[in-house]
Structure formats: C-alpha cells, structure tokens
Amino acid sequence: MEVNNKAVLGLLVQFSIAIIVVSFHQELSVYYFLAIFLAGISINTLFGEPKINLLAIGLAFPFISVYSYPEFTLVILGLSTISSYYYRDFAQVLLVLAFNLFVLNFSDLVLFLSFVTLVIVFRLSNLDMRAIIASGLIMIMIAAYESALTVTLGDIAYFDLLFGTIGIIVEGARSKIPSKLVVPLSLLVMPLVSWLLPLPEAYYWWSSKSFFFNYGIINAWLPGLQYFPLIEMFPVYYIAHFLVYKTNDYVGSHLFISLVYYVSSLSSYLFFSSFHKSRRVLLISSVLYAMLTPITSIPLSVTYSLLPFALYLARTVSLRNYVIFFTTSLISSSVAYPFNFTFASITNEKVRKEYVAIAFTASLFWIIPYFLLGYPSSSLSFYTIFTPIAIYYALFIVGLGVAFVTRNKVSGISMLISLAYILLGLPYFYLIYPFAILTLFAAFLSTELKSLIPVFFISIFLISAYANATQPFLNIPSSVTSVVKQLEGLPFGLVYWNSSYELLSPLPVTNITAYAYYIVENDTVMNNTNFVGYSLVAILPKQHNNLNVSPLLNSHVVRYNGSFEWVSEQGGKESEVALTLNPPQYLVGNLLVVINITNLEYFYIEVVTNNGVKYYHNTTVIPLNTTVYAIDLTCYDPQPHQVYNVSIFYVNSSNKKLNLLLIPPKSETPLFIQKDNFTDGNLVIQITSDVSFNITLNRDLQLNFTINGAIANLTQTYELKPGKYIIVGSFAYKDYFIYGEYATIAGFIIGFVYVMVVSNENLRSKLYRVLKIEKIKRYIESGENK
C-alpha cells in the first residue's frame, strides 16, 4: 500500500509539472523551466518513488524541443535525476537549487525574506541545512563560467552560504527556540512569501488618491453615484486607512495581505489542534490552508482567515471566549461569515450551538439595514474567489479521495456537497468557499491513514500554488495613471468613467451622464457638453433679476456680478449693446443707468416696451410704467477701445433700489463630507447670493435636507433672501443603520448575561431559586405522571 501511494504521488507530481509548463510556457524563462523540473524531481525523491523521475526526462524532452529551450537543460535534468536516485540526500540540494533559480532576479529585500522563509521551511520539515550551503557552492562554480550572471549568481550564493550557516547554528544550538515561539515563527512562511508576489488586482483602489478609498467603502450610499455601500466592511475600512496612510499604497496593501495570511495560519492551527495530530502535520496543514486564502476578495479573505478561530472559541462557553468570539465576529463580518459559521458548527459536534445565534447577533449592524433597504447587488463584485475552474475540479477529486477514508463522514459529505455547489456555479457559490476548504481539511485530519498525508499535502500545495499564480495581479496601465493625474488637477465635479479601474478616480464617479462634469472615455478626460448638474437643488431666480447682456455693434462686453464692461472696438463709429429681459417684466418706477461717460450728448438709451420703442437722450434716468422687453445702449463717436463701466438699477414704486445686473445664484457642485459616524455620508451644497431667490428640492433622491441647519420640507418652494446658505442632503433611511448598531449592542448585552449565568454555577443556582425553576420542573413532571 505504501509503495502504491508513493507511485501515485510520483505520477501526480509529473502530471502537475506538465500542466504548469503547458499553462505558463510563454512566461517561463529557462531558469523557471529548470526550477519547476528540479523541484518536481526533488519532491518525488523525498516523498514519492524516485524511479518515476525517469518520466521527468521523457516529459522534458518534447518541451525542450517545442519551446526551444537550450539543450544543456536536458543534461542538467538527467544528471539531477540519476544523482538523486543514488544519493537521496542530494534531492534536498536540488530543492534549494530550484528555489535559487526561482528567486534569481528578485531584489535584495525580497531575497532576504525568501531565504528567511526557506530556513523556516527546512527547520519545520527537518531537512538538512547543509543542503543550502552545498547549493551555494554549486552556484559559485556556475558563476565562474557564466560571466553574464556572475553578479546575480554571486548574490544568490552569498545568501545560500549565509543562511545555510545560520540554519546549521540554529540546528545545533544548545539553546533551543522556546516552544511557545516555534508555532508562531513557523507560520510566518505564507506571510513572508506573500511579499514575493505582486499585489492582487482587487487592491487597485487601495490608494490615498482614490475617492472611493477615502469616502466610499461604507458611507457613500448616495443617489446618482456609481458606488455601493459595504457596511459589513467597516473593520477593513479602518485597518486599510491606518496601514496606507502610515506607510504608502504598496506597503500598506502588502501589510494587510500578509496579516490576513498570518491570521489564517494561526487561527487554522488552533482549530486543527483539536484533531490530535503531530505538530508537523498541523503546521503544514495550517500553511496550506493559508495558501488557499481567497485573497482576491477582501471581505471574504477576512472571513476565511477568522472562521477557524471562531470555531475554536465556540467549543466552550465562558465569558472570555464569548467576548473574544463576539469581537471576532464583528471584525470578520461579511455577508458570508454567519452562514459559513453556521454550516461549520453543524458539521463539528464540538462546537456549542449557542454561538450560531451570537454570530448572527454580532452581524445585526449590517443585517438589519440590508434587510430593510435591500442588499445592493453591485456590492457582490467584492466577493470573488480563484477563477480557474480546474482548481475546483482538482479540489473535488482530492476531496473525493479524502471522503472515502475519513472518520468524520459528516465533514466528508458536507465538503463534497459544497465543492460540487461551487463547481456547478449555483447562486452565490463563492460565499461558501471558506466552509468548503475548512471542511476539506477537517475531513483530512480525521483520517488515520498516514500514507495519505504526503499525497494530500503535495496535491493541496500544487493546487494552491496554481491558484495563487493564476490570480489577476495588479498592473495598472500608464494611460489610467495619466487619467488619474489629469483628474487630480481639475476642479471638483462628478465623473462618468467609461473605462476600467473606475474606483481609482480621485473625483466621485456617477453612472448618470447628465450629472457628470467630466467624462473619461478611451482613457482620456473630456468636459461633458451635456452636463446639467446634480439634480439636488433647483434655483428659481426672481423675475427682475433675469437681465442678459450682449454686444450688438462695434462692441464686446465682459459680464460681472452686478455690472459689465462695454468696450468699443473701433473709434469714430457707433457702438451699441443690448440688455434683454427674458421673460419681459412689468416695471413701475425709474430705471437708473450708471455709466462712466462725462458728455451725455453722444449717449442714447432705447427702451423696447409693449407700447412701442421709446428713445432717451442726454439722460441716465428713465421713468417706467409699462412692460419692458429690452434696453439698448448706444454711444456715438467713441474713442478706440474705449471702456465703459455700466451698472443698471431699478427703483420701484416703494423706492427700493434693485441691481438688475446681479447674476442669479447657482448651486455649487456638491461636496461630499464624511461624518464621525461611519455610515453617515452627506452631500453639502453652498449657495452665496447677493439677491433674493427661490429654491426647490429634489424629492426623488431619497435624501432629507436641511437649510442652514433647519429641516426642509421637500414639497415647499423656499424664498430666500440675499446671503450664504448651506444645504445638507443626507440619506433618508440612515436611522436603519442606527437600529442595526443598537441591535448589536443589545444582543451583546443579552449574550453576556446568558454566558455569565451558564458559565457560573453559583449564579445559575441563585437564578433558578429566584425564578423557581426547580419548582416549575417538579410541577410539570407531576402533571406528566398523572
């Protein structure tokens, strides 16, 4: 049986090599090609059947021919195969050489982290540290003949010799690492490896320049914006801001990812410890579980990493466990968390089922608002898992093998059902990914078949390596970066982003073109010629303030608020401007024209009324008692480029003086203000006016308004006097968020009291006496006996 398992493992390794080379042959340099085959030969020698390594030569030959790799690669693979066959320990040297070739072109910092990880893996796997030193010596010899790579290979050799020596010192040191630190240090493998990989594309908007990153994750529930609330992500919101603003976009994102991997490793180790396996098996299982973290989905990866810890805490009822569990549930809350915990608790008999209710109680702060308002379907774009379907076929096949030999039949069947659900692409399949992977490991750790362990570990390692290698990595095109820089330099306004990476926009994006001041299309920024403004406030100017100025003859004008400049283009010729009232207005009183002309002999005023045209000469005061359509101003024999400053006032019958050239107020572009409450995002519009005006508020936006702090009536038209006004629009149903918060707090208190009573025998006895529980029980039992 043992020989057969080793043969199966060997064939699995060769099959995996073939898939990797075929899938990535365009990206594989000769060094990566050699690294893959050397790693396969080494793994097969150490854990499988060395004779099957002959298949590696047969596999390599057609690849070398088809993909035009150098002929010496076949020689190297042949010598490596025969050497590891006769000298099994040499396979460890091959493993280090494969590692060296993989990290050949990395920076010094990444090399340092890589070799720290290598030493941890060797120490964890009880491999010989001398293999690292031997690999360094081989690299030095190769560097002597490869002059083009002397410096690069020399750097690799230096790290080999340095860390190999450190490893031997640690191995032979009398003072051992404290046992409490062995597990936390060993589980640093995946967090350190994560720094070797590029950032996943899902983190492209983690930028201090992004409007969505700054405001939109949880508080941009505002109409007309192309954003969507993610109330459940509020812990991630604050963690992300802290990491990014304390470091930078790249480092902050990597720190978060490595933290998720580390939490995933630690929490799974605690959960797996209940299966009573050796520490080495538990450590490797935890590392592999972390490797399958769905890092492409930010909220789902948090749930995935904390789910095992939640199950670990839920095995006993105590105040300490309750408080930590409730906090964990708050932090790990995504739409997937309470359901994954419920499924996992059903398949794990050690979990106290009261914690299912606690998990849902801790999630009420987002369950209640979404239940009352509906869940925004666009938010589901944040819940993704690894896309290649081959990953889930492979996991299903591995799970099928585990299900046949596991002692925990419930976990085995549940695992297969959940993986099949994902494979079939049924509704919301991605949400049960954490449960599927966790039950796969739970079913595996419930087996007694030791020969299955290396096969399972190698299979999961290859699947997880393929999953991480094929995920979309961040590669923002330079054209998008250019668009972002352009938008950064523009005045505030909404953007219609008809391109990719829209959440990177430094200005808020909208899905309604009429609201957009700018349009991004084909990676260029354009002003929107059809811009009508954000339909929040409608300005209705008073009739007498609507006076338009336009040049007619030998003139041009520059309009100001309350006046205009009239410039004659040529001297000695008639110059004329027109002032139009639209609509016409009935005026009773006097019209005053203020103009910097000392000699009115050459100045004429023409007033167009419903009674005809009236002419005025050598005066600036016009009596009116009629409907006025237009006013023409004419100057004869001006100087070249003569500048006239003109103001026009209307004095009504009540002797009130009004400036007809004041420009009617317009609402400024809405500003987006973040309040202290994480769900409170407001629109703020400022209006400053020198004239009286009317406004109406849009009733179709699900917003409540205040005007200078006073609650506004949406059905009323407001007549406002000259002055400064601040109009605030806030989401009409934001109280639902408060209901959810209060429900979570109340649930925590009720749960705290329950756990305190259940976990304290004296308190429980007193409560039973007060409530006369025993008496009630005896009464019920006596009734049943009758």
What does this structure look like?
The protein has 786 residues and is α+β, with helices and mostly antiparallel strands. Helix content is 50%, strand content 17%. The chain is built from 27 helices and 20 strands. Helix 2 packs antiparallel against helix 5, helix 3 (54-66) packs antiparallel against helix 4 and helix 15 runs parallel beside helix 17.
Mean pLDDT equals 82
What share of the residues lie within helices? 40-55%
The SS-based structural class is alpha+beta
Distance between the termini: 64 Å
List descriptors.
alpha+beta; single chain; 786 residues; 5-stranded antiparallel sheet; 9-stranded antiparallel sheet
Briefly summarize what is shown.
By secondary structure, the chain is an alpha+beta fold. It contains 27 helices and 20 strands. The longest helix is centred in the C-terminal third of the chain and has 25 residues, at 735-759.
Task: Summarize the SSE layout with pairings.
Layout: H1 2-24, H2 30-47, H3 54-66, H4 72-86, H5 90-102, H6 108-124, H7 130-145, H8 150-172, H9 179-186, H10 189-194, H11 211-219, H12 234-246, H13 249-272, H14 279-291, H15 298-313, H16 319-331, H17 337-347, H18 354-362, H19 364-373, H20 389-405, H21 409-423, H22 433-445, H23 452-470, H24 478-488, E1 495-498, E2 518-521, E3 524-527, E4 537-541, E5 547-553, E6 555-560, E7 563-568, E8 575-595, E9 603-609, E10 612-617, E11 621-635, E12 643-652, E13 657-659, E14 671-674, E15 681-689, E16 693-697, E17 703-707, E18 710-711, E19 718-720, E20 723-731, H25 735-759, H26 761-771, H27 773-785
Helix pairs in contact: 1-2, 1-23, 2-4, 2-5, 3-4, 5-7, 6-8, 7-8, 12-13, 13-14, 13-15, 14-23, 15-16, 15-17, 15-22, 16-18, 16-25, 17-22, 19-25, 20-21, 20-23, 21-22, 25-26
